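Example 471, ligand zinc ion.
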Amino acid sequence: MTPLDLAIRGGTIVTASDSFIADIGVRGGKIVQISETIENALETVDATGLMVLPGGVDGHVHLSQPTSDGTVMADDFESGTRSAAAGGNTTILPFALQEKGRSLRQCVTEYHEKAEGNCLVDVSFHLIVSDPTPQVLGQELPALVKDGYTSFKVFMTYDDLMLTDSQLLEVFEVARREKALVMVHAEGHDAIKHMTRKLEESGKTAPYYHALAHSEIAEREATHRAISHAQLTDIPIVIVHVSGRDPMEQIQWARKRGLKVFAETCPQYIALTKDDLQGLNMDFEGAKYVCSPPPRDQAGQDAIWEGLRDGTFDIFSSDHAPFQFQGSNNTGKDNPNARTSFKWVPNGIPGVETRLPILFSEGVSKGRISIERFVALTSTNPARLYGLYPRKGSLVVGADADIVLWDREKTATIRQQDLHHGADYTPYEGMEITGWPVRTILRGKTIMVDGEVTGSKGDGAYCSREISDFI
Ligand code: DUC
Ligand code: ZN
Ligand code: ZN
């Protein structure tokens, strides 16, 4: 019999439901065999003592995304996907953003040009709809959904991105007709503006006050409003980057009424608190932690853990939105404008490389969640939710051989100098981790081993998607 391309031998395979010791055989980039012993292969990887998981699927990543003030993101497709590979991911979903006044289709085409030939892991795009003109609602969006862009994000805040309530409802109607999935950035715009003005008037302009301006109350209110609009238009929605108990309870409230509301949370809501935004002494270092929604407090973290355990959260994504802290020529978070007010600090933090280690260490190693739940939250569920399953997010015969080997005993300290992203800092500097990805395999090819990225740009491909499994 012709030999297999690759055999992964002796590891403990972990899926979203089971763990068992078996070998995996790979041919032509696909899993073709899972059995007790596989011997006849051109390449053999000894996984004895390691966990064999489906590669991470990060459902929320921002790369090369244009910003309203011209700040350039710290990662393009090459550095962002290199960082993803180093962190145990084999697929990521960044956003193709429609700038107001522009054709959505044109923006998607340009985004493809940025990605083409530059990726080390597989990618697929969500859309961001910021200008729902009749042309976009009537022609562009329906055609894009048919072309495999089956999810899009809408914003309830940010001057350059936000939709009014009636625009949200119009977009939701299109989602219902086309069976697309809407992701909602739920923060109430006017409440944020009001708080920002009040804080500035009393001289409270340090980065820390970002966390007060973007209050959990405003997040809770917008979450409820998004859910109401979804109920009215009869669509499922995903509430992304849920930060604490208040918005989480709105999701639970909706589910009790039978509404299809999916929920995402992120590392910053279990590993950071708003006190990190203070820096050492209300100094500008706090800007390193400015993201939206902001991290909350210890009680908020406890609530998020409850939700990760009890199934309130379906997926755990990074919301990787990398900006330099210093940057050159005032292009980072620490720019002269940002020094005058928190409202000018670019919103977002890097995290695509640290997402899996943080959840593994804080969740699995500390006994808060099972390893199967870890796989569900970080790989299987995002693949299912966004129409990539079972090709991605699963270890079954016929799936892409996207695999990550984990050493659950390996300890490490997160250090900027060891990371592969383009940002000049990590908000998780010094964090102690137990459990680390030691090999990432993309469609049968090893793209990271022992921290060294061995893949090259062009290894990653674009994936068109089906309608969500969860709709
Ligand atoms: N929303 C995101 O999803 N990411 C970064 C910033 C933001 O507001
Ligand atoms: Zn958002
Ligand atoms: Zn985001």
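Summary: The longest strand covers residues 403-413.
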